[in-house]
Design brief:
The protein is mainly beta. 14% of the residues lie in helices and 50% in strands. Strand 12 and strand 13 form a beta hairpin.
């Protein structure tokens, strides 16, 4: 009996030990799975970002034109062909804006509210301070569908100075869309290539002006870290209800090449046709940029536009004609920090002397204008 009891006790202890080991083993194998699930959940948590950006300026030029006293008071003392530095002979704000964005695994959204002379010059009154408002959903890996109000997909210069080497915009950029309303499909199969297809309300429109849809596209290819090529465009009817239906085709090609660590080039070519205008619009610019130090750099840009029939640059004082001419801009930038700049830029506009005498020098009409602008910006 004693031997049997001892054997039973020993067996019981061994069984208890085995069960304890099994329970411990189960805990150690299931715990990492639970932790992994928690880690996975943490990875896909929405990322919320709040950004602010302010750009101020003081601008002067040689144009002595004065608007009639009956004109909108907000447009007094302003400059044509300029979205940046729109008001002259005074200190003012290009933009003071706040942006909020959220990015999750399957959805994303962005809202930007802006105040300043950029929206005053460029935005429709009903959307004056609304720069961007859009929402998107992931349809599958690398494929997104977004809808709402966006900054344009066309062009090699951004509307916002912080993203450009120079603050002033070229004539090429001035006649491209700044904003657009619609939906876009974005596909990025590899890191080096992205394509977009757009269904738009019109050419640079937030609201449709006719019942016909417009279309846009973009192909972005970055074969090397220092070189990017982009082809984008637009196709649609730009005319409002009541006007004859027409088809505008707009093509944009822009290249960016950082040749050395200090020296880079950016260039762009735009070509457009329209079925009711017997003329071809084209415009080009080339910008060279050199970093003397991490805090100081210079940029030089040459630009040209030819819009003889006023397809994109119709001007109130020009009958059956648009803007044709060239410009040269030289700018220097000082960067007190990685998120701020102070810039001084000089620009000479030389338009067609026979068709584009849209400026004034004293009491005389002229086709030339010299501009000077001091600006500073910071973002956070």
């Amino acid at each position: 009996m004693k031997k049997t009891g001892k054997t039973l006790v020993t067996s019981s202890i061994m069984l208890l030990s085995l069960l304890t080991q099994l329970a411990y083993a189960d805990e150690t194998t299931t715990k990492p799975v639970e932790e992994k699930k928690m880690e996975t959940a943490a990875v896909v948590m929405p990322q919320i970002k709040i950004e602010g950006y302010v750009d101020t300026y003081y601008a002067i030029d040689t144009d002595t034109s004065v608007l009639p006293q009956s004109a909108d008071k907000r447009l007094q003392n302003t400059r044509t062909l300029n979205a940046i530095g729109f008001r002259k002979n005074e200190v003012n704000i290009n933009t003071a804006q706040v942006s909020a964005s959220i990015n999750a695994d399957w959805y994303r959204s962005k809202l930007s509210i802006a105040y300043g002379t950029i929206p005053l010059q460029s935005w429709p009154a009903s959307y004056l301070n609304l720069q961007e408002a859009n929402l998107g959903f992931k349809l599958r890996d690398n494929l997104w569908l977004d809808g709402g109000l966006f900054l344009t997909h066309i062009g090699g210069e951004s509307l916002l100075p912080r993203y450009n080497w120079l603050s002033t915009l070229s004539l090429t950029t001035m006649f491209e869309p700044f904003y657009q309303g619609g939906v876009k499909l974005t596909f990025k199969p590899i890191e080096q290539f992205e394509m977009q297809l757009h269904l738009l309300n019109g050419y640079g429109l937030l609201e449709a002006v006719n019942p016909y849809p417009s279309f846009g596209w973009l192909f972005n290819y970055t074969p090397m870290s220092n070189f990017t090529a982009v082809y984008s465009g637009y196709a649609g009817n730009p005319n409002a209800n009541g006007a004859a239906t027409a088809v505008r085709l707009f093509h944009d090609v822009n290249l960016s090449y950082q040749i050395t660590e200090k020296f880079g080039l950016r260039g762009e070519v735009d070509v457009a046709t329209q079925s009711d205008i017997q003329s071809i619009y084209h415009s080009e610019f080339l910008t060279a940029h050199y970093d003397f130090t991490p805090m100081f750099n210079v940029s030089l840009r040459g630009e040209y536009v030819n819009d003889e029939k006023g397809m994109l640059s119709a001007y109130p004082n020009l009958k059956d004609a648009g803007i044709t001419g060239a410009g040269v801009t030289l700018g220097g930038e000082f960067k007190p920090s990685t998120n701020s700049y102070v810039r001084l830029e000089g620009r000479e506009l030389i338009l067609d002397a026979n068709k584009n005498k849209i400026f004034k020098s004293g009491n005389d009409a002229t086709s030339n204008r010299f501009e000077l602008m001091l600006s500073s910006g910071i973002w956070f």
